[in-house]
Each structure stands twice: as structure tokens, then as C-alpha cells.
């Protein structure tokens, strides 16, 4: 009798132990599931994380140099969730500034300095909304003419091509001729077509205007018939607000400029700008981190594999008509206070 009771008690105890063990395992599994659920972010949390340090950079036409520079910058500053720059294709330099001013998600833009002129009347306070980070490279003015054209004044009333709408030449070119006081017949067709017309003497095309970084491939390929040339453009007070003096030389175009000869012209600075976000705001903090990453890593852009224009970048170069973004100014000030290496 006692043996039977003992066996029953042991059996009951074993059942109880099994139940307790099963409940413990279930509890542990439930706790692990709950912990895992806490570790996996929700869709909204993931959205917030992905957007926290992402900046939009309006960079222009797909075939232009600015979009290439923007892509290279985005590669060098990329730091996963800590910083992500999205280059954005737009209709050109003017559209870049418009996007910076009015489109959500656009923090930065690459512009030509004289694009501010378009907003001078309708938006006189634009300089309070835009600040520059870095002067990227100059885009030299090339006024290329047929043999019978001897001076800029000879172009009055004649056909001058400014490339297709949306390009730097299509915006800055007519503006420059307006400042020169020369009334021309403006055309906006692809430059290769206009150059072919000039070469053959077709369509009364007297000149083409390029505004881009020298040298231009079209002028390095030759030969050109005798008399085709670049016209000089003098830098004076009418260009001091947005432009800078420049030259075209034999080293740039040996088939068109004699050794030792220099053709004076002007250049339009191409500039990386930011919206002038309020100090301490979330967008200000994003641009500040971008400045720190880009300025600290600019040497990585000055090696083979990246655009050669980076090799001439001067972080301290000023931009006519604009103030520098405060965080960029502060970064440069900190570098000035650091002792030279080896001291």
C-alpha cells in the first residue's frame, strides 16, 4: 500500500515538474520574443532613422559637370546612417537654386554665382536665405567667332548661340551680353550643331558662347579654318558683383591661340551652397556634419579616379555676393588655430 502511494506521489511530482519546466520554457521564449520585438524597429522608426542624417543636393543636368562632382562628394562623405547625401538631377543651375529655396528635402545646391541675379527684383532678400560652403571651380566665358568678326561690337544684330536651355551658357551668356550692352540675336541649339554651321558658313551663325571649365574638347579638336578665334572680354566694374577675371591661353587651346598669347575673359564661379537654416535646427546640424565630413576628407577627392577639378579646390576661396555658412566659417577658424604639424 505504501509502495503504491509512493509511486503515485512520484508520478504526480514528475508531472508537476514537467508542467513547471514547460511553463518556464514558454515564459523564456515569450520574453525572448518580446525582447526581439523591442530590438527590431517599427516601419516608422526605420523611416526616421533613414531620414535623420540624409541631405538632398540639387546638382543640375545629367550630362553636366556639377552632377558628377555631387556624386563624388556623396561617395566621400557617405557614412551609412550617420550621413547620406542624395545628388538630385534638375533642369540646370537656375533650377538648382529654385529647388534649394522651395523644395522639401533639398539642403544643398550647386549653382553659378550669377544665378542670384534672377531673384534680385522679385526676391531682394535672397542673400539672407542662401550661404556658400565652397567655391568649386570657375566656368570660363568662351566667345568663339567666325573670321569676319573682329570685336564684341561686331556681333550686334548677329546670331549668337548659347547652347540648349538649362545650361550655364543659356543663362549666363545672355546676361553677360546684356551687361555689355550688345543686342544680339540669341539662339539655343546644341553647340555641336551651331559649331558646324559656323564652320560651313551656314545659317548666319556668327558666334557660339561656352561657359564651362577650360579646356573645352570642341576647341582642342581641329584644325579650325584660319581666322576662327576667341574674342577678349575685359573684366571691369560691370562684372564685379558675380564674376572674376580669367584668361584663355595657348596651353588651353594650342590650335587657336599662339604661344605666349593670352585672351582675357571672365569666369562664373561654380559654388556649393546651402539653405541658411536657423542655427541649431535639425537641418542646420545636418549641413554642419556634411561640412565637417567634406572639409576633413577633401584630400580623398584630390587623387586619381576623381574629377581633376578637385585638385585646384581652395577651401578658403571666397564667393562674390554671398556669405559663408557659419559652420563652414567655424571649421576654417578651428583649422587656423591649430599649430602646424610637427610642433
Concise structural overview:
With about 350 residues, this protein is α/β, with parallel strands linked by helices.
Could you characterize the architecture of this molecule?
The chain is 38% helix and 21% strand. It starts with a helix and ends in a 6-residue tail after the last helix. Strand 1, helix 3 (65-77) and strand 2 (84-89) form a beta-alpha-beta unit. It has helices at residues 2-39, 43-52, 65-77, 93-102, 168-180, 191-200, 217-220, 282-301, 326-337; strands at residues 54-60, 84-89, 106-112, 130-145, 159-161, 185-187, 205-212, 229-230, 244-249, 262-275. It contains nine helices and ten strands.
As an assembly, this protein is single chain
Distance between the termini: 96 Å
Low-confidence stretches: none
According to DSSP, the number of beta strands is: 10
What is the helix content?
A: 25-40%
Q: How are helices and strands ordered from N to C?
A: HHEHEHEEEHEHEHEEEHH
Look at the helices and sheets and give the structural class. Answer: alpha/beta
Q: Helix count? A: 9
What is the approximate shape? Answer: elongated
Beta-strand level of the residues, as a percent range? 15-25%
Overall average residue pLDDT: 88
Integer-rounded radius of gyration: 31 Å
Q: What about the largest sheet? A: 10 strands, mixed
